[in-house]
Amino acid sequence: MKRIYTFIxxxxxxxxxxxxxxxxxxxxxxxxxxxLLKLADxxxxxxxxxxxxxxxxxxxxxxxxxxxxxxxxxxxIKPTQKPVIRTIKKRQATDTDTLQVKLKALKPRAxxxxxxxxxxxxxxxxxxxxxxxxxxxxxxxxxxxxxxKPQCLxxxxxxxxxDGYDNAKMSLQLSTTxxxxxxxxxxxxTYPEVGIYIDNNPVFLFDKVANKRYTLNRKNISExxxxxxxAKKINIKLGFWPxxxxxxxxxxxxxxxxxxxxxxxxxxxxxx
Length: 272
Hints:
Layout: H1 2-48, H2 55-71, H3 95-105, H4 107-120, E1 131-133, E2 137-143, E3 150-156, E4 159-162, E5 167-174, E6 179-183, E7 187-188, E8 195-198, E9 208-210, E10 214-217, H5 221-230, E11 233-240, E12 250-255, H6 259-269
Antiparallel strand pairs: 1-2, 2-3, 3-5, 4-5, 5-6, 6-10, 7-11, 8-11, 9-10, 11-12
């Protein structure tokens, strides 16, 4: 009897067991499914807001970085110096500046005077005469135009000119006492503007006519030679042939190039 009951209940037991297993599997499946759904939701949230995942980590990193910055030594940065711009004020011209400008302008003149001073101390030897100075003046020891006694004289070159009637010649001769003009024609001092002109200086008149063909100036010889040292030219204006009708005042110009040296040599020659 017991075996019969056993065989009867075995199938029911198996069915009951299979049903209970099936229910457990269903519960497990349901749990797994709910878990997967939650994970899917989390993944969707992460994709839509990726920064939310690392927010806490970022905050920790920022805090750590700030602490590291605080621990580091503070480096003082010196401000760069601004370039100093200096303004140069124009200095007003003074009397000293004006004097310096004048001295610069007179420098060639000063050098010329220095050269003359050196020349004045030159040694003149009689065996070296005559001596040529430039192209216009010759120093020699000889008889003068109006003197029979030999003396040191400066003579100019002869210049040709027209005396109103004919061609003639004129030359100058300078001693320490007079400037003499010699011509080939008889001189007439009644013509207008006759005299000695040195550059643009006032006219020097002749003292007299000597031997008809010579005229001279003794009264102003010191002033004449002083001007001639620094001048460029000397101009002689004369009339001629007093017994003939007046024509026109003749003008003859002589260069004063190298005259300063020649005059210094004349003074040295007179000390021989």
